Amino acid sequence: MEDREWNNGNPIPADVGDGMDTIPTDGSGNLGPVVIWSAPLEVGEYDLVFDANQDGFYDAIIDLVNHPNHPGFVVLAPPIAGFSAQPTAGEAPLTVQFTDESTGDINSWSWDFGDSSTSTEQNPSHNYTHPGRYTISLEVSGPGGSDIKVKKRYIQVLEKPAPENPAPKPTKPASLSVRNLQVSPAEVYPNDWVTIDFDVKNSGGKRGSTVVEVLIMDISSIANE
């Protein structure tokens, strides 16, 4: 019996030496199990083809490609993790889109974003709210095993600068004025006391001080002129 590979429908001679072996039988003439060869194969689907009479005609085909439930070979690609991100730096809050670039037969993804957040999506996005440098890891798994990719300090989140102080509004300088002037009593004898009350108001926009002069004039002499 000669054992041959079919890779996706293309017959390829198997590297099994002469490919011959004696197959034991039981008392009823049924064939017993036999191991022809065991060798590394490239990634793909393989059928088993038998030429019992060695006449170049295939007597039996175990067709894995068209009949997946039949025995045969499937050589799976082992997972190799890889990813990229955009953007990798910016001010907080920063939303980053991660893209899976892994190869192989993969059916699960496990992301760690470095800030205690995780995801099992294939191409997740994540929002960073605090400044810092973050290490990202992606572990992928499949029938052929698992693999992990780690990028240290891959994402840089910068602190958003504080807003500038607004320009102060223009203000008027201090401007003092006298109001509510009162004199008591209005008539007095010589050498009597006179009380003069008044308010000083700042009509400007800034603090300031000045000297307020109070002048007492003898108007009787003016009236007699």
Please state roughly what percent of the residues sit in beta strands, choosing from under 5%, 5-15%, 15-25%, 25-35%, 35-45% or over 45%: 35-45%
Structural class: mainly beta
**Mean pLDDT, nearest integer?**
74
* Helix proportion range: under 10%
**CATH fold title of the largest domain:** Immunoglobulin-like
Query: How many beta-strand runs?
Result: 15
Distance N terminus to C terminus?
153 Å
CATH class of the largest domain: Mainly Beta
The helix/strand order is: EEEEEEEEEEEEEEEH
Q: How does the major sheet shape up?
A: 5 strands, antiparallel
Q: Mind telling me the C-alpha Rg? A: 49 Å
CATH-level-4 superfamily name of the largest domain? Immunoglobulins
Q: What is the domain tally?
A: 3
Count up the helices: 1
CATH architecture of the largest domain: Sandwich
Tell me about this structure.
Residues 1-24 and 34-38 have low confidence and may be disordered. This protein folds into 3 domains: 1-75, no CATH class; 83-158, Sandwich (Immunoglobulin-like); 176-223, no CATH class. It has 1 helix and 15 strands; from the N terminus they run βββββββββββββββα. The strands form 4 sheets. Strands 1, 2, 3, 4 and 5 form a 5-stranded antiparallel sheet that branches. A 5-stranded mixed sheet has the order 7-13-12-9-10, with no helix packed on it. A 3-stranded antiparallel sheet has the order 6-8-11, with no helix packed on it. The chain has 225 residues and is an all-beta fold. The longest helix is centred in the C-terminal third of the chain and has 5 residues, at 219-223. The radius of gyration is 49 Å and the shape is rod-shaped. Helix content is 2%, strand content 40%.
